[in-house]
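Below: protein 1.
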Amino acid sequence: MENLVTEDYLAEGTIGNVGMPGAPIATFSLIVKPLKNSVTGTVIIKQTVDDSENDIAVEVKGKINVTRLGQFTKVVSLQGKYRQSLEKSENDSFLADFDAYFAINNCWDGTGGFSCHNHQIENEPVALAENLKEEFGIN
């Protein structure tokens, strides 16, 4: 992945304990622009395995910065807004904030968290999507 330092690239992965029933999982698909230290893309938050009707989709933008400190070589921050329905009425909704952050290594593995409408998820694993690991030459 070191050869991607100056070229834009796609990063897809997850924040959360994938496979744990009921655990909220944020799946990200980001276009990374290293020369601009920016990322843009989509995050899908899934609370339950079987109910895609309640998934939250958020268009996000943010920053990626090189740290050169310890095991984590990059930090990423994301922000976006999404339509949140009020619990008492499906017809009433408002724009809610979404934030995410993670510290990762060059293989896009690390730790992070996210927050959305009264929920804060902390200290969760971050992992690159399996289909990209082969493309990036990661075992």
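Below: protein 2.
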Amino acid sequence: MIIMSKNNFSIKDRLKSFVYAYNGLKITWQEEHNFRIHCIAAILVILFSVLFQISRLEWIAVSISIGFVFVCELLNTSLENLADFVCQENNPKIKRVKDIAAAAVILSSATALVNGLIIFLPKIVSFCAANHIF
């Protein structure tokens, strides 16, 4: 009897992994308010990026910042779901784990905000000065 190894490459399995990932995004969109807020913020930042015609390096910083926040939010959500599954009752150790994961989201969001201020604040000030808004 030949036992197939789980290490065999399968295009079908690779395509399924994209379906699973999309499903994770869909679930997170439907269930997590903060994820939707991050999505709206990302869309606004992308619109400002186009409007202010940011440089290639600025696009890199913006895209990494957006991705960093999304990754932290998704990991936080998955960790919270796992913790809730493992322990349904209030548990100070589970709370600690969840708080630390939430801190990663806050830290990534603060980092993205700082990057945004560095990139967009001078552009906004220049725009306002040129249009005599101040």
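Residues 92-130 form the longest helix (39 residues).
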